[in-house]
Design a protein that fits this description.
Structural class: alpha+beta
Strand content: 25-35%
Distance between the termini: 74 Å
CATH class of one domain: Alpha Beta
Oligomer: single chain
Radius of gyration: 25 Å
Helix content: 10-25%
Length: about 475
């Protein structure tokens, strides 16, 4: 009996020893994965301390030794795009192979439910049949499980790279999918999407705890108090999603990130700006380089209001999102024209992905195409008129309309959703007209001396119709800054 127990114990120890000796890749290195082109790609994993590890891929062979903590990392020399899949082989005391690996562009797709919203929809679908079921396997995505952790994790809990073909793309982030379709059309290379998002999440949950020290004491206190109101899924701490869903990716070489979030931070203006600034800088610090970061400004939502003095919780968030353009290597997709009054998840994700892609194509891939929305630049007052000047007008400002996927100029249309206030701060709907190429003249009979002008500055500014000639809608704004 004692001998049987002794041999069982020895066998168990031997099995543990053999298991620990296996070289292992983290779960993002699955078959069909996409590696970043034209960059020193990091491949990393786990092994016994001191174990020699060799990585072979695409004609390269790189060796390293696992550190005392049982981790290892190598860098592959920059590679051009490669559409044909190859095998990656990792050799230690055992051999691990990863099949059908391609080289292209890798983008993180982060945020809450509007980024999580899949191509196949949640009861409503806007995609074409080819987009839903065709062979678009040049797009590959990995959607990881919804888990949180109070501590930063080294590995994902699951997920695998999936080719967008035969209907599998129905589970892919729709915004990311349309973003990738446009990139592939222009670049001709594979596109990898790290589909890392969670419906209802707050920006605080994506900020690593250690980054909170960079915030002001007031903002950090607000963030900690705000996030504790979450009551589900063990989500009661700063960075709970970053720890499990984002930190494992920070050694994986990427091109950049796209982001669609803000609904859960409604009502926050300057605070949201400071949190976003903190998050972007923290992510870049974790990856070790300043990758591009592009986001979606919140869409129009809920019933329109006839009172120009009534705004709504999304308004200060949109304002803060525009302020984030002061952060280097960033961009914004304005979608104030494709939201829906009765659904916080607007179905038109095609336009969202296209406008995000336009930012990347110009700023990261050198394309000479329009990419930006008109932005308020300055105001001058002449008598009872406010003269507003805009940037990003291209061939000029126009009255326009977005018809699902098509934009058209309304030659006989009048500008809507401009409001003007005098010294008393009371707003009135204004007459507005385009003057020249880049200016709008605004006035209201109730306001003799304009002090402040707003445009589309409501939760749902239905009918707002100022565009540039390229079909990008003007970003909502107020000439009076929001300080809270």
């Amino acid at each position: 009996m004692k001998k049987t127990f002794l041999w069982s114990a020895i066998l168990s120890l031997l099995l543990v020893s053999l298991a620990s000796a296996d070289v292992r890749l983290p779960k993002m290195f699955t078959n069909n994965c996409v590696l970043q082109r034209d960059a020193a790609v990091q491949v990393f994993g786990f092994a016994d301390a001191g174990e020699k590890v060799t990585v072979e891929f695409n004609g390269q062979k790189v060796e390293t030794t696992a550190c005392d903590a049982g981790k290892w990392l190598v860098k592959l020399a920059p590679m051009p795009a490669k559409c044909e899949g190859s095998t990656m082989t990792v050799t230690g005391k055992n051999v691990v192979t990863v099949e059908n690996v391609v080289v292209g562009e890798v983008w993180v797709c982060g945020g809450q439910s509007n980024m999580q919203y899949p191509v196949g929809g949640w009861g409503r679908v806007e995609a074409t049949e080819d987009e839903l079921t065709g062979d678009n396997s040049f797009i590959r995505f990995l959607r990881d499980p919804h888990v949180t952790n109070p501590e930063p994790q080294d590995d994902l809990t699951g997920g695998e790279w999936t080719l967008c073909k035969d209907g599998a793309q129905k589970a892919c982030t729709a915004v990311g999918y349309y973003f990738a379709l446009r990139l592939h059309k222009e670049l001709g290379c594979p596109i990898g999407l790290i589909d890392c998002n969670w419906g209802g999440s707050k920006v605080e949950e994506w900020i690593p705890e250690k980054a909170m020290s960079t915030l002001s004491e007031e903002t950090a206190a607000h963030a900690r108090e705000f996030v504790t109101h979450v009551k589900q899924d063990n989500r009661k701490f700063i960075g709970c999603m970053y720890n499990s869903k984002m930190n494992p990716w920070t050694k994986y070489t990427i091109k950049g990130a796209i982001w669609y979030q803000g609904c859960s931070n409604g009502g926050q203006g300057q605070l949201y700006f400071e949190k976003m600034d903190c998050m972007i800088k923290a992510w870049r610090a974790a990856w070790g380089y300043d990758f591009p970061f592009y986001w979606v400004q919140l869409a129009n939502y809920q019933a329109p209001n006839a009172d120009p003095n009534t705004t709504g919780g999304f308004v200060p968030v949109r304002y803060a999102q525009s302020l984030c353009l002061s952060i280097p290597k960033t961009g914004q997709a304005v979608i104030i024209d494709v939201g829906e009054a009765k659904d916080i998840h607007p179905i038109n994700k095609f336009v969202v992905g296209e406008r995000l892609a336009a930012n990347a194509l110009v700023k990261d891939y050198g394309k000479d195409i329009p990419y930006a929305s008109p932005m308020f630049k300055e105001m001058k007052v002449e008598g009872n008129k406010a003269i507003l000047t805009f940037e990003n007008v291209y061939d000029g400002l126009v009255v326009g309309k977005q018809n699902v996927r098509e934009f058209s100029v309304d030659q006989d249309g009048k500008l809507q959703r401009f409001a003007v206030a005098g010294a008393d701060g009371k707003f009135f709907w204004a007459e507005a007209k385009i003057v020249g190429k880049d200016q709008v003249e605004v006035s209201a009979p109730e306001v003799a001396e304009p002090v402040n002008v707003r445009y589309a500055f409501q939760q749902n500014p239905e009918g707002c119709n100022l565009y540039n000639s390229a079909g990008f809608p003007a970003s909502p704004f107020s000439t009076e800054p929001i300080t809270k």
